[in-house]
Amino acid sequence: MRDTFTALLIEDVQQILNDEIATFNVKGLVAAVAVDHEPPFVVAVGRDDAGSELVGGSIFPIASLTKMATALTIIQLHEKGALHLDHELSKYLPTAKAAVGGVTLRRLLCHTSGLSASLDGHGTPLGTEPDWRDRAWVHMDQEVHEEPGAVFAYSNTGYGLLGFAVEAATGARFEQVVTDLVLKPLMVSKGIPAYLGAPPEDPAPVVLGGYLRNNFTPDGLKCLDLPAAGLMTSASGAIQLVLGVGVLKPENAAAAVADCTAGAKVPDALKSDVALPRPPWGLGFDVHGDKGALHYSSRLASPSSFGHWGASGCYAWRDPERGVAWAVLGTLSTGKLAWHVPRWSAISQRILNSVDKHKNSAG
After folding, report:
1. Residue 127 Cα distances to 44, 143, 338, angstroms
2. Which domain CATH number covers 267?
């Protein structure tokens, strides 16, 4: 019976992806879906920008999905006593301009530290430094513009600072700590490739596309801020980041995917643009809450569901109430969020409808 359920679901997901390719300006999509406690299955359709056929194991730059790996790393370090979520940044990076009272690791994880959403006064192109650490001065130079805890502002800079805090707390390179605590147990041990700070020797398998093509290349990824957006993996790896909260102690897993913004106000720009990140938000994870029909996880996703999206054209989501998780990676990056949010929402809704339909039939 379970084999029949999975076969029907795979057939539906294949049709969903084929419909998107036939109707919209995307050349290829790969999706991973996991239901209940079964291993994920993967469906690939279409081709990459170079015309190569996509396969289930195609490697993509997953951009800001990396933030979930960074968060899982930091929370585990908190569990081990190597750092503390409620320590202020000044304990680890005392010379950072953002190391002021109230800027804690917890607030950096949930984007309520008071840092701006974008870098102030620095337009250094990616790819001009040999290593992401050579951009440390950019992050260390950022100042807090709001009272910590008062405003939600999605911040890549905050995650850059978190990466340097990990190195200060452990004495090890950030990418090695993430590999040991997250990538090895969640991906590498399962035979899933994952690259952070060390792109594949052969760049050919890496799927690139869209307006961010020049950033998300093996050369660009060497200096892209690794804690915010530097991970490359397959759809099977991406889905492990939402399934992987189980590596945390139960109380910390619950806190990671609960709203941690504590009433932080939302800037007017976020109120008017549903495509932009906004609360509720957990410790590194976007939380559905009451975000409604236009959220990329769709109106059907439970309020407690969680995940993240990435500007290279991907997202991963988990709905624990339904017992389903899914990740979708595509060849069209998010140059036009107005396209991605409704299309991702439609894909999510069709996946959830399919799971519900076949569960009901099997029940």
Report:
1. 30, 24, 28
2. 3.40.710.10
Q: Cα-flanking dihedrals φ and ψ of residue 82, to 5°?
A: -75, -25
Provide the pLDDT for residue 214.
44
DSSP 82-141: SS-TTSBGGGT-TTSTT--TT-BHHHHHTT-SS--SS-SS--PPTTSSSSGGGGHHHHHT
pLDDT of residue 212: 42
Look at residues 303, 301, 343, 357 and name the one whose alpha carbon lies nearest to residue 326: 301
What pLDDT sits at residue 345?
92
- pLDDT, tens only, 45-72: 998 877 889 999 998 889 899 999 999 9
Per-position b or e across 159-182, b if 16+ CB within 10 A of its CB: bbbbbbbbbebbeeebbebbbebb
Spatial separation of the C-alpha atoms in residues 27 and 43, rounded to whole Å:
15
pLDDT tops 90 at residue 111: yes
Q: What is the widest separation between alpha-carbon atoms in the chain?
A: 60
Residue 123 pLDDT > 50? no
User: Using the 8-state DSSP alphabet, how is residue 179 labeled?
Assistant: I
Quote the domain boundaries for residue 198.
2-362
pLDDT band at residue 26 under the 50/70/90 scheme: confident
The tokens describing 305, both together, are: 């569901």
Please count the structural domains in the chain: 1
Give the C-alpha separation, 80 to 119, whole Å. Answer: 32
Give the pair of three-digit tokens for residue 52.
Answer: 């190569």
Cα(158)–Cα(167) distance, integer angstroms: 15
Q: Which residues lie closer than 8 Å to 53 by C-beta, 6 or more apart?
A: 46, 47
pTM listed for this prediction: 0.93
User: In the predicted model, what is the mean pLDDT of residues 87-112?
Assistant: 98
